[in-house]
Structures are given as C-alpha cells and as structure tokens.
Write a structure and sequence with these properties.
elongated; 5-stranded mixed β-sheet; alpha/beta; 4-stranded mixed β-sheet
C-alpha cells in the first residue's frame, strides 16, 4: 500500500508475527533490516487504516479452516492469527483470528512490511513487547536471545534451525520499550531485557548464557557476563591449521582468557568434526586461552554443571560460596525451564 492509496490494511502481531518473521528468516537469512522497516512517517497512516472487516482479514491472510481450529485451541503446530486494530469498534468475535486494540501510539520502527500487499507485521522489537505481557520470564529471555542472535527457530515442525543475521539488538529493544508506557525496568520486558545479550548462535548457547549470568532471584548463577561468539585474533599459520580465516568462541571472558565451548553429540558424531574441535582448542590454547567444554548432559545435571561453574569461578578469580538449599532448588528449576523454552 502506498501513501496515496486508501482502504484497510492488516497488521499481524504477537506470536503470529513471530511465526512470520521466522518464516522470513528461512527464506532470506541475510535480509537487510532497512528493507523491511516501515518509515516512521508512514506508520500512523498504516495504523489508522488497520480497521479491516472479517472478510478482508480472511482474504488478505488467506485464512482457512485450520485458523478456526487454532483459535479454538487446536494442535500446537497451528497458531491462531493475531492482528492489531486501531479502533475498538472494528473488533469482531471471529473464529478465524484474534484482535488486539492499539491503545497507545506506535513507537519508532514498530512495523515491518513482510507479507505482501496491505499486510504488515509487528517488528521484532514490538513482538518482544507484545509477548512480554503473557510470557514467562524464561521464555521472554530466550525470545530476546533469539531475536538478537544469529539463529532462527523453525516456523513449522521438523525444519532445522537457520543461520541468519540478527533481527534486532538489545539497544533497539530498549529504545522501543522506552517509547511505550508500562514497559519500564520493573516490567517483565524490562527485567528480561536486562538478562539478554547479542551474539548467540544457537538455543543451547542462549541457555548457557542465561543460566550462568541471570540474577540469583531467577535461579541464575550471576557470573560476570561473557561475550558470545566474539572473534579471536589468530595468525596465518593458525588459520591454515583450522582451514578457515576466523575463530569465534561460544562464550568467552576475554580479559580472563577463558572460553566455554558447547559440544553437541551431533557435532562429535563424525570424525572430521572431532578433529576440527581438537584443532580449534589447540589454537585457542596457543593464544593463551583456557578452554572448558560442556555438553547438554552436563548442563542439565546440576551437580556436573556446578563442577564446571567452580572451574569458571576459579579462573575468573571469584570466591567459592556454598549454595544454599533454596538456591539449589531455584537453579535446578531454571535449568528445567530453560530446557523447555521457548514455548512459542
């Protein structure tokens, strides 16, 4: 829709918008954000036109019987379409979709143009704010890590993760929350934002980061925050040894020369992957970086994880303090919740 056109538009939002962005990531993993963000001077025009009739919504979103099933609490792989409307009077009780009323002005960069003519999508920053109202803290943190990371979860079951460019940054999330009422530091969104970081390349890296650095009140271990996938300078000889020109660490505390590497069982299923890992660790050690490896089975086992944590604390020069029973329970629960997250 251009500025001279009139008529109604559809703005998909919340979890349905997240599904659309995940699908976009699979189609275009190296998208340019500026190609999709709706300019601020056009957002108000689009928002005012977000008063579609039920038939317009069904036509523009191509809704069929599966949408009715999803809105009635159908299978998890179907999601009830959710849209934003600018007028309370335009809301209807449709069995095909659910409406949310825009009760305050849209912040900067709130909309993306992703789904074709006259259909818009909440931006990653808006999705984070919208889902914060009903999501658990762990789910919201995992969502923030995904949006600011270089991986995209599948938009339909059985698809693999996709490697893509980040959709946003913690700074952009902060700017959007700052322009909305009710999303301050003490809100769910504000507290989750304080826990997340940019640079994660997989859900497991996100879980590791959150478990190690989240506040004690959440069950986290409150360790100093490492960098995620930060590049390490290596020599040309080391590049030849690795067979590539760069080297990044999953989690690294550069000032302490310490790296934590996640080793998946799938990765070590092939001998060439095992040899690549050995070469990688050798190069890191040549550069004076201590490498600690961790697997999923170690991460989800509290006692084994705490053995790794003790090694990290020792290298970081932190005092060892025995965990109280209450803190142990909180950490075990956080590990369980991280294993189940995200739920959308």
């Amino acid at each position: 829709m251009n500025d001279t056109q009139t008529g109604h538009v559809v703005i998909v939002s919340h979890e349905y918008a997240l599904l659309c962005l995940r699908a976009l990531s699979h189609r275009e993993p190296h998208l340019r954000i500026q190609d999709y963000v709706v300019p601020a001077n056009r957002q108000n025009t689009i928002a005012r036109a977000a008063t579609p009739t039920g038939s317009e919504v069904r036509k523009l979103l191509n809704l069929r019987e599966h949408a009715r099933t999803a809105c009635a609490g159908g299978p998890r792989e179907t999601i009830c379409p959710q849209i934003l409307v600018s007028s309370k009077d335009s809301r209807v009780r449709s069995p095909y979709y659910h409406e949310h009323y825009m009760s305050q002005p849209l912040p900067t960069d709130a909309l993306w143009k992703t789904l074709g003519t006259d259909v818009y999508c909440s931006s990653p920053e808006m999705i984070f704010a919208q889902l914060s109202k009903g999501a658990s803290m762990v789910d919201l943190c995992m969502l923030g890590m995904e949006l600011c990371g270089s991986y995209g979860l599948p938009y339909i079951p059985d698809l693999p993760l996709v490697n893509r460019d980040p959709l946003t940054t913690p700074e952009r999330l902060s700017r959007t929350l700052g322009e909305l009422d009710g999303y301050g530091p003490r809100s769910n969104a504000g507290r989750a934002l304080a826990c997340i970081a940019a640079g994660s390349a997989s859900p497991m890296e996100s879980r590791l980061f959150l478990a190690l650095t989240a506040p004690r009140s959440m069950g986290g271990l409150n360790l100093p925050r490492p960098l995620l996938n930060d590049p390490v300078s290596i020599t040309r000889e080391q590049q030849r040894l690795l067979g590539k020109g760069n080297l990044k660490c999953d989690l690294i505390w550069p000032e302490h020369r310490l790296a934590l590497e996640y080793e998946s069982h799938e990765h070590h299923g092939r001998i060439d992957n095992y040899e690549a890992t050995m070469a990688r660790n050798a190069v890191l050690q040549m550069n004076g970086i201590k490498v600690i490896s961790i697997s999923a089975s170690t991460f989800y086992n509290y006692d084994k994880l705490m053995t790794i944590v003790d090694q990290i604390k020792h290298t970081l020069g932190l005092r060892h303090r025995p965990e109280t029973e209450q803190m142990q329970r909180k950490t075990r629960e956080l590990l369980r919740l991280l294993g189940d997250a995200p739920s959308f």
